[in-house]
Amino acid sequence: MAAIIDGKTISLQIKDELKQKAAEMKKQGINVTLAVIQVGDNPASCVYVRNKKKGCEYIGIGSLSYELPEETTQQELLDLIQELNGRKDVNGILVQLPLPSHIDEDTVIRAIDPKKDVDGFHPQSVGALCIGQPGFVSCTPAGIIQLLKRSGIEIAGKECVVLGRSNIVGKPMSLLLLRENATVTIAHSRTKELKEVTSRADILIVAIGKPKMITRDYVKPGAVVIDVGINRDADNKLCGDVDFEDVEPICSAITPVPGGVGPMTIAMLLNNCIESVNLQ
Ligand code: GUN
After folding, report:
1. Per-residue pLDDT tens over the stretch 78-131
2. d(CA 231, CA 242)
3. Quick one: 203 and 258 in the same domain?
């Protein structure tokens, strides 16, 4: 029987800590505000954006919401980002991804002032993470580090395998684990003998985007398994990239889906908003 790593409870703990910090900052006259931009009405993005705004409300910081139509031009979006970059009353700028296909995501991410890049997606933020300098860290991987630490799971010296190499999760996850002194392997769709590689992991982080792909034959008995996937199974039920029922009996700790990694992403976004004041 594995310990279930409860992301809902841990994220609430973090949000309550941030609520206190926000209140202390308010007393000193510091009001933190996040600007959230959404282009179009992708249903998943609508849910994420709504939850981000609710999170701001919960910890007591301001949020500005820009819900732009699908036809918004790239230039119009860049003009809005420029305006927000220049506003002293805006601390964080978040552009919800994906963007419509006529807008180039890289150009948009580069336009955000790195001092306001609370998503941690700007090349300058990624570069700073890579060489251990101060900057914003991508929220989902930062949340996973918190899940591990707050569950009392030691990272230093451990064999960590990150399955997936996306810019948002896999790559920054590997860098963060390295910063915590783990031995890190990045595996992906082209990795040979994948089961052998993942079975080396003391801590296995799965962000591959394939529903229930990871069964117990990919997992070393006693390993810690972190599931970043959010998918729908054949019955339209939410499921991860890990086959929870199959893997849970043989690992030492595991995150459920939903209620594992998911809630941590917003908690860490809010943390970045509070921290933004120190970088500005
Ligand atoms: N789309 C999916 N995840 C994210 C995220 O963490 N930030 C943004 N901006 N867009 C996303």
Report:
1. 999 999 999 999 999 999 999 999 999 999 999 999 999 999 999 999 999 999
2. 10
3. yes
Regarding the beta carbon of 139 and ligand 1, being less than 6 Å apart is answered yes
Q: What's the angle, vertex CA 53, arms to CA 66 and CA 138, rounded to 5?
A: 90
- Examine the residue annotation and report whether 202 is marked as an active-site residue of this protein: no
Whether the CB-CB separation of 58 and 15 falls below 8 Å is answered with yes
Q: Which residue, 88, 118, 148, sits at the end of a domain?
A: 118
Decide: 62 and 33 in contact? Cβ < 8 Å.
yes
Q: How many domains does the chain have?
A: 2
Q: Find out whether the beta carbon of 97 lies less than 6 Å from any atom of ligand 1.
A: yes
Residues 195 and 101 in one domain: no
The answer to whether residue 211 is domain-embedded is yes
Count of CB atoms situated within 10 Å of the CB of 138: 27
Phi, psi of 162 (to 5 degrees): -105, 120
Domain range for 68 is: 31-118
Distance between Cα 258 and ligand 1 center (Å): 17
Q: In whole angstroms, what is the distance from residue 71 CA to residue 102 CA?
A: 9
